[in-house]
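Hey, can you fold this one?
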Amino acid sequence: MEDNPDKKDPSLEIEISDDDILEAMKDISGYLDITPADLKELYKLTYRHAHDRIMKSVKARDIMTREVVTVRRTTPLMEVAEIMGSRGISGVPVLEDNGALAGVISGKDFLASMGAKENMNFMSVIAECIKCGGCVTVAISGKKAEDLMKAPAITVDEGTTAADIAGIFSARKINRVPVTDSHGRLVGIVSRADIVRASTIRLRA
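Sure. Predicted structure:
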């Protein structure tokens, strides 16, 4: 999705706490005689503890894009493709008329519908066009967003931690997740790029 210039930069300079150091020292077995190798190992473990702590403290509300490009169930697929192309985005949430989240549609959904069943890439579509001697987009011509979207969408709420969202991305093999309120209305979206930025931390002694 698009970067939000007003969004708070989640790349954080984190002060190393005494607890981080103590927890890191506990991870080193035996007598602690500080050598360059020991110090390097201690720093690595301290960084890990600090990283884990911040990833559990950063919430979806802190890193999500609030102004999300969306389409409706009845939006023609041609218009969906034009919106995604012009905005340089790889997926959009699909909304009901009342604003509730209905599903999500991505570039992979377009590719899959046009014959890219295995590799899921643009060249697979080109190969299919050449093989069939025609345009494979004919199969989805005249259809709407609701005909191609994935539903129900995988969602999180504003209080979901960055660590949990990263786990969802890994387990479900997705690149973005809509953030919804208690009524199922879309309030934002978190992408893999948001998680990467949130996990980019600088330790300060």
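The longest helix spans residues 36-57. Let me know if you want another pass with a different chain boundary.
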